[in-house]
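Morning. Coffee machine broken again, so started the prediction first thing and wrote up yesterday's gels while waiting. Chain of 334 residues, entered below exactly as on the submission form.
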Amino acid sequence: MVESATASSGGSTSQDINELFIDKHEKFFQLADKIEELDPMAYLSNEHLRVPGAYWTITALDVLNCLNDSRKQEITSWILSCQNDDGGFGGNLGHDSHITSTHYAVLVMASYDALDMLDQDRVVGYFKSLQQSDGSFAGDSWGEVDCRFSYNAASCLKILNRLHDVDTEKMRDYVLACKNFDGAFGAVPEAESHAAYTFVCLGTLAVLDCLDRVNIDELGAWLSERQTLKGGFNGRPEKLPDVCYSWWVLSCCYMIDRHDWISKENLKKFIFMCQDPRNGGMGDRPGNASDVFHTFFGAAALSLMGHSGLKEISPIYALPVETLKRNCPHITKF
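Came back before lunch.
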């Protein structure tokens, strides 16, 4: 298996790290929120990811037990301002609607117990408008299709208790068409298997209560083979490990109850080594610069493994279980 020997400023690879720096990660997220004034060019290059970034940050802080309601009104008002006339949400104020940004917007509102502030009929109407005749979903009005968008629709509509508003049988059949001979899933039918696409397909099937359509042991074997010698997971054979796959692979293992087929201890060590012990946050692999995306996925994976002091996260919905219980009494499988 291929491993990385490259390190850059950011994290530390000079010594083993065996703890989670919760306080430093909290400060890292707080500092990241000020990027517009601290690093205008970095802000501009990531302007379209402000809503996704809000989800990664807020959910990570929640999982780390560091989220409070002090900015609830500010953040929920800003999220609502990102909604467009078509009912969908853009990645930032004034940006075109996209199904992924819409999903993230709903997740942020759920985190603040503010789903009642949404015009849910408009949101549901946006999702309905994107379902295609074969059951798949387009990402936006321009028509790109892959299985990520099926998961966005399934998860979001289930949270809103509105799955009945779309054709769930065709949704299921499209996702199953993305399954390959190795038991895993690709982005579209006949595409190469990939861990991230496997997560969204499996998550969609879990939401639809159709996991019985999957060969559990076959998929479990493919997932377990994603663990590299350094403990981290890769997304495809012969690729480098990356912290984000800690979530995408491990959550699948939990959904199909095959999490004992991997070494959790080695995975924890890999995630710990991806931390920046000085400034907080996590990079994609040890020694690389931190970002909110990888920090969220690292914390989420540690939560799945029951790390002390962290809230339990749902492998299906990527929200704390207690958040789902408060906001979605109709959901019984987490």
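Residues 50-63 form the longest helix (14 residues). Going to sketch it on the whiteboard this afternoon.
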